Amino acid sequence: MKGLPEERAISLAKYMIEEGATVRQTAQKFGVSKSTVHKDITTRLKGLNTVLYEQVQEVLCRNKNERHIRGGLATREKYRAAHAMQQTRH
Asked: Which end of the chain is more exposed for a tag (fewer CB within 10 A), N or C?
């Protein structure tokens, strides 16, 4: 995503709020690094739009509280796929 960093920060924040997206999902959607997303929504955004900043912080907090669940689901799916592949070999 090209353009001014300030505009990017606002676009990233709006996307995260509307979609409830994680930093990783947002980075992938916009074609930027996770570090860029994090810097934009924590540092740049705070000076640009405090209301948007507070809303995106709520999303970050919610995602942080749910990350162990997403990690567990990903691990379960990994082992299910491995088990299914092993079953097709036998």
From this structure: C
